[in-house]
Structure formats: structure tokens, C-alpha cells
Amino acid sequence: MSDIYGLVRGPLAVVAILVFVVGIIYQARQFFSLTRERPVVLPPASVLGKVGQSSGPSLNAINNSILGVHPYLTVITSIVHACLVLVPIFLLAHNVLLYESLGFNLFAFPEPVSDAFTLIVILGGVFFFLRRILVRRVRVITTFYDYFILLIVVAPFLTGYLATHQWFDYQTMLIVHILAGEVMLVAIPFTKLKHGLLFFLYRYLMHYEHSLGSGTRVWSYSKLAK
Amino acid sequence: MPDQEKKPVDTAAIASMLKKKEPEMKRVLNYCLRCSICAESCFLYMAHDGDPQYMPSYKVINSLGKLYKKKGNVDREFLEGIKGLVWRNCVLCHRCYCPIGIDIPRMIDFTRSICRSEGVYPEQDGGESWL
Questions:
Q1: What is the pTM of this model?
Q2: B49 has a chain A CB within 8 A of its CB
Q3: CATH class for the region spanning A2-35+66-224
Q4: Where are the domains of chain A?
Q5: A51 CB-near residues (< 8 Å, 6+ apart)
Q6: Chain A contact present for B82, CB below 8 A
Q7: Model confidence pLDDT, tens digit, residues A84-141
């Protein structure tokens, strides 16, 4: 058992982290390679400064936003996503491992806080699973792959929680937890989970109706045609 | 379009069109989280009492998504089948809203181009009612 533990904690963990980092860089590079800056067309000088003026966020704009249309879903998904990112980075046990391996550590949440955030992710997973089954409009576009992705995300948190509280054989659960975490790391750049990165690139940099940022990039067809 | 209706579909031409936009399309289709949050941003979805067939993601997944999955190897019946999704169920008003930034109207527009290249489009007079 200790051999397997050594393998998953050592070489496999290094491979998973490398694949994650290289994969994320690859996806970002692909994005910038397949898109290009769009020439900015300014209005005539006579009206420049008078167009596009906003009186600030209006109630109507908020009502029509995702927050306005789906307030509960927006709050739930935002909290779950925040916990999903924060827990692995600021977990005490992970920081102890980080210190043992590299000689430094980050700030760590108190264990009850980590426990609560982990439970939020697990319950969030249950919520999204039930939503896929029970809500008709989600069900009609859901495939097996979507459930599989959900499992990849929830598995490290569930196994981590079970290992921490030693509900089953600790050593086995720990190995399963580390493996699940490594699978998730490898999956992030190459599955839908890459939306963690691409969300910011698409929503802020791509030119389209609902761009949140400058929206100055468009797909580059000369490159796409190759 | 009696002649077009009899003409077999040029699958190579469709495959070539798909290939041309593959990097963008592949990303968009693989990237969709199928969350259905785009639904309420479509006025046709709202006007049809929440019929999922009017949901922007449903329209793309079941038209371009299927075309891409079949690599363009489709028959006229298939194109006629998705015609309603990309013309009747969508007016390309560009108001649909994807939380992760997929430009859905571009995909519908592209599907229309593919259909149109094979002579599949709604008839302006006569033909079936779109209402």
C-alpha cells in the first residue's frame, strides 16, 4: 500500500501538475493563435464622446442579467465555484504537503472552515446532479459526459472529506483522493472544465454582443482555414 | 425548389465548410456546459411557454452539433429536419446570452449557411407556415 501511496503522491502528482500547467498554457496559446485583434472603428469625430455614454448600471440591466433572471442559481453556482477553487489551495493538509515538498506554504483555512467549504462543493455537486435530472430543459441537452464531468469534479472533494474524517479505511481513501485530484487536474485543460480559464478569455476578450470587457478579438479565419 | 429537393446532398462540400470553421466550432461545441441558462434570454423560448426546443443551446446542439458529429455525412432529410430549428426557432436577434461566452448566433448563422448551400431554406411564399 505504501508503494502505491508513494507513486500517487510522488511521480503521478508531478505528472498531473505538469499536464495541468502545460495544458492550460496550450489552451491559452491556442486561443490567442486562433483569434486576432479586431480593428477598432471609431464614430466620426463630431459625435465622438457623445455616443456610448452610460448613466451607470440600471435596474433594468440587472433584472435582465443572469443574476436578475436566476438569482438563486447565480448565488449557488458562484459560492460553489469559489469553494471549489479555494479549498484545494488553502487546505491545511495540502499546505503541510507543500511545505514538506518545497519548503514553503500558503495561508491555510482553519479545518472547520475547510470542512464547511468542502461540504458546500459536495452539496453543490448533488444540486447540479439533481438539476440535470429533474429540470426538463437541462435534461434534454444533458449527455452521459456531463454526469462524468460532474463526477470528476466532486470525487476529490468527497474522497478528501471521507479521508479526513476517516470514515473508511484511511490509507485506501487517501490514495483514491489523491488519484481523483490528479484525474481532475489532468481533465481541467482538456475537458469542459477548461471554462475556468476560457470563461475569462471568451467573456472579456472576444468581440460579441455580451462581452464583459474590451471585446477586441475575433476568430481569425485565415488561420482557421489552414 | 423542386430540382434542389431531388439533388443528393453534397456531403464533401458540407464537410469542407465544417472543416473551415472546425477550430472555432469544435471549441464552442465541446465548451458548452449544457447549463440551460441561455434559455430565458431567447424571447421565442419565453413566448412558447418554456419549450426547450427554443432554447439557444438546444438549437445549436441539435443542428450544428449533430452536423459536426456526423462530419457532414447527412442527407437532405436531416437538413430539412434542422431547418425549423435554425429558421423557425431562431430569428438571429443576437440577444441570447451564454454565461461562459459562446457566441450562439454565429453558430446558428453558420448552420443556416450550410443548409442554404444545399438549397435548404424556408420558402418565402407558399410552403409551410412558420407560426
A1: 0.86
A2: no
A3: mainly alpha
A4: 2-35+66-224
A5: A43
A6: no
A7: 999 999 999 999 999 988 888 899 899 999 999 999 999 999 999 999 999 999 999 9
Is A81 an 8 Å CB contact of chain B? no
pLDDT, one tens digit per residue, over A158-167 is 999 999 999 8
Q: Is the pLDDT of residue A153 over 90?
A: yes
Q: How many residues does chain A have?
A: 226
Distance (Å) of CA A214 to CA A57, A79, A200, A206: 17, 26, 12, 8
Residue B45's pLDDT band (cuts 50, 70, 90): very high
Q: Which three cell numbers stand for residue B1?
A: 425548389
Q: What angle do CA A121, A122, A128 make, to 5 degrees?
A: 85
Within 10 Å of residue A43's Cβ, how many Cβ atoms? 11
Residues of B with CB below 8 A from A138's CB?
A: 34-36
Q: Which grid cell is B64?
A: 450544428
Distance from C-alpha of B53 to C-alpha of A140, rounded to nearest angstrom: 9
